[in-house]
Amino acid sequence: MRLPRPSWEARPWAGLPKEAAWPLHRPGSQLGRHPSAAGAVDVVAQPEALASVKDDELPQELAGLDAKAREAKVKQLADERKALEEKATELAAERVAWRAKTVAEKEDSFDANVMKGVKEKAAKHGLSY
Question: Residues 3-14: pLDDT tens digits?
Fold first, then answer.
């Protein structure tokens, strides 16, 4: 039996616009993998690597720029990304605080029932939670 997918608002990326959250929920997303695993280079940490990239391999927004403008654009995009990451972290913390304050754990919830069964079976083997 297949369970229904939660609504957009119930998902962890609900606070983000759909365009920004797309890589977070796309099947097969590379999110969370180390950049070097896909051959990517962090040009903010290694600005000299940007000079070695061919123009035809650059994104459109960087392809037509000279070297100084490229570096400035990469720095601007890195700053924007950092601000968005900080905002996402802040929103996640607010969500956790809100849930802790307003959502009470139910004794008859699925999670509570699963943990009850796990604790009972673990107790038979001398384990406790």
Answer: 566 565 566 656
